[in-house]
Amino acid sequence: MEALLSVSFDNISSKDSTKIRKGLRQIEGLLAQLCLKSTSRAQNKRSSSVVANGQSPSKQLGQVAEDPAFKEFFRLQEGFEWNVATRLISCIERLLGMGSNGQCDLLILSTLDLVQGVLLLHPPSRTLFSREIYMNLLLDLLDAANPPRVQSQTLLVLVTALLATPQNTRAFEDIDGLLTVTSLFKSRSTSREVKMKCLEFLYFYLMPETAAASASASASAPIMAVLQRSPSKLLGAAKGAATHAGGGGGAGGDDGGEDGEKMTRTTEEKQRMLGRYLNNVDELVQDLRENAPFGAAVC
Question: What is the pTM of this model?
Answer without folding.
Answer: 0.77
